[in-house]
C-alpha cells in the first residue's frame, strides 16, 4: 500500500485519493493518515468497495488501483488527457516480483496487452461509470471483465494510455497461486452465467495455456514450461473452487 500511495503522491498532476479499507490490520489506516488521503472503512468486498469509492469521488474521472499497484508519474495526467476524447481507458500493466513464478506471471501479463477479450478498462469518466451501474457487487472474480463487457455492449468510446502500471506480485509461490484462484473460483460461476459467450474464450485452456505456451517456447523453454504449469494449476484450482462452492450452496 505504501508504494501505491507514494506513486500517487508523486504524480505530475494532482489527484484526490480515496482508500477503501476492509478493516485491515496491516497498517493501511495509518498509511492513509500519513499520506493525507481520504480513508473509508467498510466491510464491503472488492467490487462493492470500488463502488463505494466511486460514490465518494468528486472528480470528473475515476481510476481504480489495487494496493499492490504502482502508478508511473505521468499516469494521472495521461488519463486526464485521454478522458477528454474517450469515455474509458485501457492502461497497460506489467507484473513485477521475485522468484521464478513471478517471472512466469510477468510473461503472461505481457501477452494480454492488446488482447480484446483479456484486457479491461481501468479508468472512466465518472458519470459514464455511474450510468453503467458501476461494478457488479455480487462478483468477487471476473468483475473487471463483467464491466468491460457492459462497456462494449453500450459502445462506449474506448482509448488507451501509454504509461504502464506496475503490479507487484511479491514472492509468488504455487501454494499462494492455488489459494487465490481457488477462492476466486467459488464466485466465478456468477460471472460465467452472466457472460456466457465471452467467458468461453476467457477460460478456454487452449487459448489460456497451450497457445501462449507455444508463443513463449521459442525464446525461453524454461518459462514456457513454468507458464504452462502455473496456468494449469490456476485453472484447476478455480474449477475446484467453483465445484465445491456450488456444492455447498446446493446443500445449504
User: How far is it from the N-terminal to the C-terminal residue, by CA?
Assistant: 37 Å
Q: Reading side by side through the largest sheet, how are the strands ordered?
A: 3-7-5-8
What is the CATH superfamily of the largest domain? Answer: Spore Coat Polysaccharide Biosynthesis Protein SpsA, Chain A
Share of helical residues: 55-70%
What is the CATH C level class of the largest domain, in words?
A: Alpha Beta
CATH topology annotation of the largest domain: Spore Coat Polysaccharide Biosynthesis Protein SpsA, Chain A
Largest sheet, in brief, is: 4 strands, mixed
Beta-strand content bin: 5-15%
Contiguous low-pLDDT stretches (5 residues minimum) are none
CATH hierarchy: architecture of the largest domain: Alpha-Beta Complex
Walk me through the structure.
This protein is an alpha/beta fold. It folds into two domains: 1-171, Alpha-Beta Complex (Spore Coat Polysaccharide Biosynthesis Protein SpsA, Chain A), CATH 3.90.550.10; 173-252, no CATH class. The protein has helices at residues 2-9, 28-35, 46-56, 75-85, 100-112, 126-132, 143-153, 174-194, 196-203, 205-216, 221-251; strands at residues 18-21, 38-41, 61-63, 69-70, 88-90, 93-98, 123-125, 158-160, 165-171. β1 (18-21), α2 and β2 form a beta-alpha-beta unit. The longest helix is centred in the C-terminal third of the chain and has 31 residues, at 221-251.
Amino acid at each position: 500500500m505504501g508504494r501505491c500511495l507514494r506513486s500517487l503522491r508523486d504524480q505530475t498532476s494532482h489527484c484526490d485519493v480515496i482508500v477503501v479499507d476492509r478493516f485491515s490490520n496491516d497498517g493501511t489506516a495509518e498509511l492513509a493518515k500519513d499520506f493525507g488521503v481520504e480513508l473509508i472503512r467498510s466491510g464491503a468486498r472488492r467490487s462493492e468497495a470500488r463502488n463505494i469509492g466511486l460514490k465518494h469521488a468528486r472528480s470528473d474521472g475515476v481510476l481504480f488501483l489495487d494496493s499492490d499497484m504502482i502508478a508511473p508519474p505521468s499516469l494521472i495526467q495521461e488519463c486526464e488527457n485521454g478522458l477528454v476524447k474517450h469515455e474509458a481507458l485501457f492502461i497497460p500493466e506489467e507484473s513485477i516480483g521475485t522468484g521464478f513464478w513471478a517471472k512466469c506471471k510477468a510473461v503472461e501479463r505481457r501477452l494480454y496487452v492488446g488482447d480484446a477479450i483479456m484486457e479491461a478498462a481501468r479508468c472512466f469518466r465518472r458519470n459514464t461509470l455511474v450510468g453503467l451501474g458501476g461494478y457488479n457487487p455480487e462478483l468477487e472474480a471476473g468483475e473487471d471483465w463483467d464491466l468491460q463487457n457492459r462497456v462494449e455492449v453500450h459502445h462506449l468510446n474506448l482509448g488507451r494510455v501509454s504509461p504502464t502500471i506496475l503490479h507487484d506480485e511479491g514472492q509468488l509461490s504455487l501454494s499462494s497461486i492455488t489459494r487465490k484462484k481457488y477462492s476466486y473460483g467459488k464466485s466465478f460461476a456468477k460471472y460465467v452465467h452472466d457472460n456466457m459467450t465471452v467467458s468461453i474464450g476467457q477460460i478456454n485452456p487452449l487459448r489460456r495455456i497451450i497457445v501462449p505456451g507455444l508463443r513463449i517456447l521459442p525464446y525461453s523453454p524454461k518459462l514456457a514450461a513454468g507458464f504452462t504449469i502455473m496456468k494449469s494449476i490456476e485453472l484447476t484450482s478455480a474449477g475446484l473452487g467453483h465445484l465445491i462452492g456450488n456444492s455447498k450452496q446446493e446443500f445449504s
